């Protein structure tokens, strides 16, 4: 940190902290740009590498799983040590991996570079969550976590858009451009990380305020025996398990650009035009995710009235969003594009259709509502994990949830592609895509039930963690699992 000493009063100032938060949010967004990037490019990638589209999708599904598994190791290490070097290292790894994907000419090397990139991506979300949770007081966790979650959603949209627009073209190597761009952005991000503020673990907790004001430090770190403590909190169990079913549905939605692209192709547009149309429509239809801020605000407000608030908001949003998704999948789309139109003209034609074509407007409103409702899940999930776990457990418990999320997302992404192929025997594209995506909405039902079950245990788990932190703030906590966990209450209102 010698380079920071020369900056005088800037280090640790409000400006420095704002800069640091901005870097963390941008990096979380870039991570999801990387995840969404290949999806609209399945066709040109498969032709270039000489494999089927299913084989390229297999790489995406495997990358979800590898990212989630790697995140566990990154998070556990981050809960025991300094987090900034880990974030820099993870970012450098995924940048190199994406550069390799953009340069390779063989399927096996493409697969290997994607897996290498996925290892690095595992660091960004898990270690980053631990850092961000230390910046936010419990009172405002829903709002700030909605911004953190929103950066993930914006990144996924940007990945779809960048991949579809920058990667489309007559050249067989056009798909490589987005991968090389991401590699460059990742390396720039590593440089930006050099100047971020090292956030102290636990600094946002009211129960530890006196400790920090007296010049003390929160020195508790996770131990292997703490894994059992984490899993004894029943709220953690429900928050982790809900990701299996929730991400089965969200993983299937990765195919939304393919549904929209197929609709454009049935209108007679060539593949290059259809890729741009599908990507732009997909971005437009997912803008409702920006309304996760409302879900975070509602969760904050209701949480101040009852400890069950955040979990109930998430459950209600999941259940209410299902019918709007079904409408989105089945309402037909019509867009008018001149022959020989360039990319900018195609984008303008798609945007114009939202106000000139009634069916497009209906799809847009259905998508906006569906995403606004189901995205309430994200900020409240983040905030609940922070509420029911002490600072040294948060990265690890997040990574455990993220691992289950990765399994669910990979399963959803893979199984829905099998369903599309089976349905093709009776239903031609795009009807096979629409039907398959609608069927996968059923996995949202157990997700909502698990959030409701979490709402019944969350009050006792929050009280237990606050009692633990109060003891540590007074210097009476020992740090041992047996004596440092005063009450493992798991029942609530």
Automatic annotation (TrEMBL):
Listed name of the protein: Major facilitator superfamily (MFS) profile domain-containing protein
Lineage start: Bacteria, Bacillati, Actinomycetota, Actinomycetes, Micromonosporales
GO molecular function, a single term: transmembrane transporter activity
Regions that span the bilayer: 21-42, 54-74, 86-105, 111-132, 144-167, 179-197, 237-256, 276-299, 311-331, 433-454
Region Disordered, annotated ranges: 472-493
Pfam families found in the cross-reference section: MFS_1
Organism: Rugosimonospora africana
Matching SUPFAM superfamilies: MFS general substrate transporter
PROSITE patterns: MFS (PS50850)
């Amino acid at each position: 940190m010698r380079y920071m000493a020369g900056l005088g009063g800037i280090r640790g100032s409000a400006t420095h902290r704002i800069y640091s938060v901005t870097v963390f949010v941008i990096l979380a967004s870039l991570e999801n740009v990387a995840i969404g990037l290949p999806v609209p490019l399945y066709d040109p990638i498969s032709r270039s590498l000489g494999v089927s589209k299913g084989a390229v999708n297999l790489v995406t599904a495997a990358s979800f799983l590898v990212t989630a598994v790697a995140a566990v190791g990154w998070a556990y290490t981050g809960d025991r040590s300094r987090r900034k070097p880990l974030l820099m290292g993870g970012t450098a790894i995924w940048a190199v991996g994406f550069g390799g994907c953009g340069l390779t000419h063989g399927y096996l090397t493409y697969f290997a570079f994607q897996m290498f990139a996925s290892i690095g991506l595992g660091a960004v979300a898990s270690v980053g969550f631990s850092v961000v949770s230390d910046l936010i007081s419990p009172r405002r966790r829903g709002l700030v976590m909605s911004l953190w979650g929103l950066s993930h959603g914006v990144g996924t949209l940007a990945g779809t858009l960048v991949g579809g627009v920058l990667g489309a073209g007559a050249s067989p190597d056009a798909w490589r451009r987005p991968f090389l761009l991401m590699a460059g952005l990742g390396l720039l991000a590593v440089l930006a990380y050099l100047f971020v503020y090292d956030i102290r673990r636990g600094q946002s907790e009211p129960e530890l305020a006196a400790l920090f004001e007296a010049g003390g430090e929160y020195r508790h770190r996770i131990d292997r025996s703490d894994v059992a403590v984490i899993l004894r909190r029943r709220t953690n169990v429900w928050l982790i398990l809900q990701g299996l079913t929730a991400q089965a549905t969200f993983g299937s939605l990765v195919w939304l650009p393919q549904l929209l692209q197929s609709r454009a192709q049935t209108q007679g547009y060539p593949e290059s035009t259809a890729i741009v149309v599908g990507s732009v429509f997909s971005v437009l239809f997912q803008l409702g995710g920006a309304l996760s801020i409302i879900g975070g605000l509602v969760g904050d407000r209701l949480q101040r009235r009852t400890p069950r608030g955040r979990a109930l908001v998430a459950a209600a949003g999941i259940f209410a969003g299902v019918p709007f998704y079904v409408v989105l999948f089945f309402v037909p789309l019509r867009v008018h594009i001149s022959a020989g139109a360039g990319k900018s003209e195609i984008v303008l034609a798609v945007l114009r259709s939202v106000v000139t074509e009634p069916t497009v407007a209906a799809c847009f409103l259905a998508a906006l509502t569906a995403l606004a409702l189901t995205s309430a899940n994200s900020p409240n999930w983040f905030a609940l994990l922070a509420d029911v776990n002490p600072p040294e457990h948060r990265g690890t418990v997040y990574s455990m949830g993220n691992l289950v999320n990765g399994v669910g997302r990979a399963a959803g992404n893979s199984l829905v592609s099998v369903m599309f192929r089976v349905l093709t025997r009776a239903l031609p594209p795009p009807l096979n895509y629409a039907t398959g995506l609608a069927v996968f909405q059923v996995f949202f039902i157990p997700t909502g039930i698990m959030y409701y079950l979490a709402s019944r245990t969350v009050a006792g788990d929050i009280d237990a963690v606050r009692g633990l932190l109060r003891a540590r703030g007074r210097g009476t906590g020992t740090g041992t699992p047996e004596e440092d966990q005063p009450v493992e209450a798991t029942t609530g209102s």
